[in-house]
Specification:
1 helix, 4-stranded antiparallel sheet, alpha+beta
Length: about 110
């Protein structure tokens, strides 16, 4: 019984460690290596909301639409969960295209990129 548990544990750990290692693909041009840490899983924005109101805006990225909330009178960060490198935020004034790492300011419900 003990040996079976150890074998199952070793197999499970080997699969979990293998999932974090680089993936290699053999192509006609040679072997290409892809690293998970270079993938985009979200767009993080640093924001300063000068308004005394919370704002919730519609966001479109990778063909899907969601909402994002900016809290009142604060500087903070927010992440848009996506696999794409950019997104469009529809604020009270216009639509604005943002990308990973942008710093934005919100004033009177309108977004500007710093």
């Amino acid at each position: 019984m003990y040996k079976k548990i150890v074998v199952v544990l070793v197999i499970a750990l080997s699969f979990s460690f293998a999932s974090f290692s680089p993936v290699e693909y053999n192509t006609s041009k040679g072997i290409e290596t892809f690293h998970v840490e270079n993938s985009d899983f979200g767009i993080t924005l640093r924001y300063y909301n000068k308004d005394s109101n919370d704002h919730e805006f519609k966001v479109k990225t990778c063909g899907s639409t969601t909402k994002i909330k900016f809290e009142k009178s604060r500087t903070s960060s927010v992440t848009i969960q996506t696999g794409c490198s950019d997104a469009i935020i529809y604020d009270n004034c216009k639509e604005i295209k943002v990308k990973k790492g942008d710093k934005i300011t919100i004033k009177n419900g309108c977004i500007t990129i710093d």
